[in-house]
Amino acid sequence: MPESATAAPPLQVSSETAPLRQVVVHTPGEEMALVAPGNKDELLFDDLLFVEEAREEHATLVRLFEAAIGDAGAEGGAVLQLSDLLREAFDGADARESFVEALVELLPERNFEAYEAELKALGPDALHRFALTGQAPFAVSATPLPNLLFTRDLSAVVGDHPILSLAATAARRPESAIIRTIYHHHPRFAAARERLIELPEDVTFEGGDLLVVNERVVMIGQSERTSLGGVLAVARALLDRTSVEHVLMVNLPKERYCMHLDTVFTFADDDTCVVFPPIIEEPRDHVLHIEAGAERGGDGPREFRMRPLPSVREALEEVTGRSYTFIPCGGADPIRQRREQWTDGANLFAVRPGLVVGYARNRATYEALARAGFHVVSADDFLGFYGDAAAASQDRIAVRLSGNELSRGRGGPRCMTMPLVRMRNSES
Ligand SMILES: NC(=[NH2+])NCCC[C@H](N)C(=O)O
């Protein structure tokens, strides 16, 4: 293994665009094929995915990461599969037991308590299958977890601190038990365990709502999925325990189309963002700047200082001291903006500053990226001609990934990735 690989720490995310070294994904499997007309709404799918094709699209995304990261990956490789991490964690009987206990606790309405002993007695493979598909060798059943595809929402890493999400919907709540089990029991996370940020059970928070601007600044959406309590609990933990000094809370409409902040706002370069103009460009006092206030003395928690700011742009410019270019998702036409936002045009994933991947179908978004100086290439061309040389260069490149099946799940490349390590060489 090259030296840089062993040197990379187990967890380190220094910004949204810092070069990617290791990422967790989930290639759709058996659980996706269990989405049917009768349960799709409950499972948060607007349509059924053609699973074979979705798997191929996803495999291209994985190849792209492997090509771009090359040998710079952290220990264990560039791309980790969530399902493997869970299966490896289940090798320990403690992990299996605490997973079952977490399910019982997180989903009281499902009455898994009645089968607790049987579930705890399942071996690692059987419990793994039950966790993903809801199917067990006896009379209990749970809902399948097709949304595992969107690994982003399970957790967020800020610096070297992992935050465990607490999913807002019943369909996704078992995912919180999965990620909790992985962080608590998988040997890979042994060193990060003491830095784990866990939230009080009465709040909700999903990773798609948190963006790491730099070591001192994070943005958090207060959304359909992340409650005000969730924002404040994450803010408190970050301000108390990490290098973060500024939390910018963005108040979003509580609607499905913009369920997380990353559905309307992502970073394409250190100073360039792709934005959904109707929500992000109009100033309307929808940003709250949160900082640590005075110590209270005694054991009481430290106070917050909060003040409203008119817009995302003003908030970012004020706390970072730099200026930003906003590229409109869908270009200038309001209808195309809405159509392309719906198919995740604003949900780009940056592999390094200025190298992004999105869904090819969002053509007006790519035209806007081209106008901002990005070379637009297909995923095949990227893999054939660019690969790791492109990752190392300074060129601005926007890769078009075929995602006609994947996009039916209402999530784009950023939603499908949970970076564990992203940092510049100088940071290792
Ligand atoms: N980070 C994101 N924007 N994730 C999108 C998740 C989509 C998923 N079907 C859901 O409704 O939960």
UniProtKB/TrEMBL annotation:
Gene3D superfamilies linked to this entry: Arginine deiminase, L-arginine/glycine Amidinotransferase, Chain A
Q: Which InterPro entries match?
A: Arg_deiminase
Q: Which SUPFAM superfamilies match?
A: Pentein
Listed under catalytic activity are: L-arginine + H2O = L-citrulline + NH4(+)
Which Pfam families does the annotation name?
ADI (PF02274)
Query: Is the keyword Hydrolase in the record?
Result: yes
Q: What is its EC number?
A: 3.5.3.6
List the keywords (alphabetical). Answer: Hydrolase
Q: What class of enzyme is it?
A: hydrolase
Record pathway = Amino-acid degradation; L-arginine degradation via ADI pathway; carbamoyl phosphate from L-arginine: step 1/2
- Cross-referenced PANTHER family: ARGININE DEIMINASE
Name the family. Belongs to the arginine deiminase family.
Protein name (record): arginine deiminase
Species of provenance: Rubrivirga litoralis
